[in-house]
Specification:
By secondary structure, the chain is α/β, with parallel strands linked by helices. It has one domain: Aconitase, domain 4 (Alpha-Beta Barrel). Helix content is about 30%, strand content about 20%. The chain has helices at about 20-25, 45-50, 80-85, 105-115, 125-135, 160-170, 175-180, 180-190; strands spanning about 5-15, 65-70, 90-95, 120, 140, 145-150, 155.
């Protein structure tokens, strides 16, 4: 999968809190065997119920950064939620982190890293300011320097260094393992038994 160092694009703002994975992609689609075709299913039930859904607005078309509230991706674990976000065209999700609420659930965070979706958490008034700037705002996310910039504002964000390295290099878990392929092969060559000698 492609790595990501700096991403520039426009935002789509869906500033809701506690958005669970079933809202992102309903469970009935999890039995599909293919890994493609999930983009059009992103928030499919919510979009049918809510007229004027934020991601359907003209200014949201072509957006590659999704701005959300806090505790995004809570609920059951499903890579399909990440696939739906990516296949709808989003490369980065930006959430609000509070003292008593993370920007993302832990399982969603790990699934996103494994699929190459960058999750950014902004603290304090940074995310509310970005959300208030509105859908269609041009934003630059610099993963190398861990900054988010829009209009005349630039803020820093924290990220786990292992996940940062993984996304910079475009590595999933298999790719991360294969980075040690030579050491693994050397160990397997030396080790000729799966049981200790008597």
């Amino acid at each position: 999968m492609p790595g990501l160092q700096v991403h520039r694009g426009t935002t789509a703002v869906y500033n809701a809190d506690n958005v669970d994975t079933d809202r992102i992609i309903p469970a009935r689609f999890l039995s599909r065997v293919e890994r493609q075709g999930y983009g059009e299913l992103l928030f499919v039930d919510v979009r049918k119920r809510e007229t004027g859904f934020p991601l359907d607005q003209p200014e949201a078309q072509g957006a590659t950064l999704l701005v959300v509230g806090t505790n995004f991706g809570c609920g059951s674990s499903r890579e399909h939620a990440v696939w739906a976000i990516q296949q709808a065209g989003y490369r980065v999700v930006i959430a609000r982190k509070e003292a008593d609420s993370p920007g993302y659930s832990d399982i969603f965070r790990q699934n996103a890293a494994n699929c190459g979706l960058l999750l950014v958490e902004l603290e304090g008034d940074a995310q509310p300011q970005l959300a208030a700037a509105g859908t269609g705002t041009e934003v630059t996310v610099d993963l190398v320097n861990q900054t988010v910039a829009w209009n005349s504002t630039e803020v820093k964000f924290d990220i786990n260094p292992v996940i940062k390295d993984q996304i910079l290099k475009g590595l999933d878990l298999i790719g991360t393992t294969l980075a040690h392929e030579a050491a693994i092969a050397e160990f397997e060559h030396r080790w000729d038994s799966f049981a200790p000698a008597p």
